[in-house]
Amino acid sequence: MDPETSCDGSAVIRALDNPVLPIDAEDEMDEESQKLEIAYVKKMDELRKHLYSNILRLQKNFDHIKTNMRQVLRDQEKLRPIDLQDINRAVESIRRKHELMELETKQIIANKVMGFQAKIADMTKRRRNFSKEATAILQEYYENHLAHPYPTEEEKGLELVWQSQNTYEEIAIFPRSQKW
Questions:
Q1: Taking the alpha carbons of 94, 96, 97, 102 in that order, is the dihedral positive or negative?
Q2: What residue stretches are annotated with the PBC domain (predicted)?
Q3: One domain for residues 12 and 62
């Protein structure tokens, strides 16, 4: 059983090798997005290096412990009978512990990756504002109709949508978005 394939975050771990900024396809890459992408790629590279260095360190430790365990059991063989099956059981026990530690390391890194991806995704969400012209038109309508700031269906459909070049739904929420 390969620990990487059994890890719930294996897709996240694979994403370390090919970091792609988690932004909507409809958003254009402006200067702020480019800075975020640079920071994202840098952080993913840092996490990838950290993961692989930890896995390499664990593998070296496993090999060292396995060698020492075999040597200790061979030395013990002089004092009491130890067969090959006992040695294999001891090595298998160490291997299982090694796999658990490797899986735990991958899960920790996967959690860090997902947390950072969520942070980047939150930073890339842009508030969809009206254009200055549309805001001026809607603000003028709002000020001229203070007694009844919510436009009728007809006014929304004909006048305001055409003048401000926004969608019907955007016009509908404008009065609620005003903070007086």
A1: positive
A2: 1-122
A3: yes
